[in-house]
Amino acid sequence: MENRENYLREELYQLIKSDDSIFDFIFDACIDGLWYWDLDNLEQEWMNDRFWQVLGYDPQEKAHLSAEWQKIINQDDLKIAMSNFHRHCSDPTHPYDQTVRYQHKNGSTVWIRCRGIAIRDEAGLAHRMLGAHCDITKLKEMESQYRRNLKEIDKTYAITKLAFEESEKLFEMAPDANLKVDRSGNIVKANKQASAIFGYGKEQLESMNISDLMLNKHKHGHPKNLEKYFTEGGARKMGAERGQLLAINSKGETLNVEITLNLIDTSYGKCALATIRDVSEKENLIRSLQQQLEENKKLEELTLIDPLTNIFNNRHYEDTMVKELSDCSRYQHDLSLIMLDIDHFKVINDEKGHIAGNEILIQLVQLISTLIRLNDTFARIGGEEFAIILPQSDLDTSVAIAERIVFEVENHTFILKTSEKIKLTVSIGVTSFIDSSDTYSSLYERADNALYQSKNQGRNRVTAFETKS
Predict the structure, then answer these.
(1) Ranges for the GGDEF domain (predicted)?
(2) Cα Rg of the chain (Å, integer)
């Protein structure tokens, strides 16, 4: 086995000393592994000891070669990583950032978030690559377990809620707080989880009124609402509008809650069974994620939206195609692509001017947007050329959508700001994913050939390409 000292390691140390941005990147991103790749000699790649320890290997067993990690990474994920690698090398603005799966030495799966940055020479060409690993396996397992737990809880409630009346065992074992409340709002019975959530002892709760757990601003109309519920009865879910239902615990702290009400008959009269779930942590997480998503969305809109038509641009179209093809291969669902071109658009530009042409493009996009599904990706990929990615849509369905677009465009009157009326048509090519050997290029080529046939056959029509070229 070679010496653990390596020229790339020494080179990286010198680079950190001379370039503050490299140190900042490592400081922010280096958690569970660090690697440095010689792009002039792709076999050579230095990985720090932590890189291998996370995957269960003794670093002394591993050489500083790129083949070492490429043997144990999920091969589908390797394709995605290498695609991002090549795109990042040619385009510095394209991030090298993806989640991949490695096989641990013990055979288990390790989920890794892999990020990297190309080191470029004076000509801007990438000649080294610096990257970091972050082990998110526990997060993935927790997410999976959380979903399973919620599913099991909901299943348990669906089966057992009708038996809560006299079943002391189920009442006490419920994972959420259970309170039995009389017509006056007095709590006549509470379970252990209610004590845990609200911070009161069981006897304390059973000497309180339900309004004692409410915010002052909600107390005024509560007696009237309670009387109405006891009169009308039925099952009722409160807090369906997320984050709007609040309660207060023994420390005066505010809790986000969801409440399910059921009116039951007992030996001592009607009683409301309130099942209360504390969703405060979930709400905090959702708010944090929403804030992050909003920030990310603003950044994405700056680079992924066509400024004229306000739909996606070619860059987002290509990114989406790569992702959808990967999902399609992995999960074996349908995927179709529509290529659309405006017939004789050059004539409109030449005769009416580019301003009028832009008005036509905007109106056409608005029309087509009403004819496709919310989960379809509509993008402008050229001057008058558009693409529509249709996930989980087979060829017949996609052809039907395309034919409706042709019909609606032909029968639509486009009105310019000068009040002049314009009629136009479009030609469309359609194809669908066939098997796992399909690529972005093959799918695009078939749709483009189908579009070419539509134009050759007289325009204003749809052509479907059903086999590989």
Answers:
(1) 333-467
(2) 31
